[in-house]
Specification:
There is one protein chain. By secondary structure, the protein is of the alpha/beta class. It has a domain of 166 residues: Decaprenyl diphosphate synthase-like (Undecaprenyl pyrophosphate synthetase, 3-Layer(aba) Sandwich). 49% of the residues lie in helices and 13% in strands. The protein contains 10 helices and 6 strands. The protein has a 6-stranded parallel beta sheet with strand order 3-4-2-1-5-6, sandwiched between helices. Helix 6 links the parallel strand 3 and strand 4. Helix 2 packs across helix 3, helix 3 runs parallel beside helix 5 and helix 5 packs parallel to helix 6. It is globular and about 70 Å long. The termini are far apart.
Length: 258
Amino acid sequence: MADWKQAIRRVLYPAYEARVVKFLPSDRLPKHVGVMLDGNRRWAKSVGADTAHGHRAGAANIEPLLGWCEEVGIEVVTLWLLSTDNLNRPPDELEPLMTIIEEAVASLADQKRWRLHPVGALDLLPAHTARRLKEAEDATRDVDGILVNVAVSYGGRREIADAVRSLLLEADQSGTSLQDLAQRVDVDLIGEHLYTKGQPDPDLVIRTSGEQRLGGFLLWQSARSEFYFCEALWPEFRKIDFLRAIRAYAERERRFGS
């Protein structure tokens, strides 16, 4: 019975997905989508596997996601792979996770389809992990494809603190007094020192696993974003789940934070 149902799904879902894509309004689609890839550990537990297996299954779902984004014309994608809080996990979980992230990012770079940009407090990462992320960025710098922000060791509060620190150091190096700097500081100036400087803010933020909170993801940039919370755990997140999120966004009347 289960095999029969899966066979039916394999036939019907592609047709349904194609229909959803066909009727998406091209003038109401997001240009920048942030995705909180949540639920790897819970998925692993549900299938009786260890945590590393869940993280590997989650990593395997990243390339399909980027392909779906290409299909609907998204220009920037931000993937939250590891928070600064996650760095406090036990070494027996954190070390395999770092290896999985390194392998996943290297695989994305090898595709030469996407331009990778690490965002986060890379100084908190093991040196080899930070090096692999920077190598992936260098290897894809000239790729003409979606800009993919790889958020590793990322926390929204840390990003804002780093932006302010960068701003102050820049002022000090230029000989600007604190009084003059205080007169100049505004939203745009701080924005020029964020990890995502020069990029459009996310139009849509998707979080998987049913959790309905930001958890520190793109705190500054998401002030006017739309949010979509999906019940599927990240390793089970399908193309149709993604298209439903895009369709829900397109159907909303954006109020830009008001």
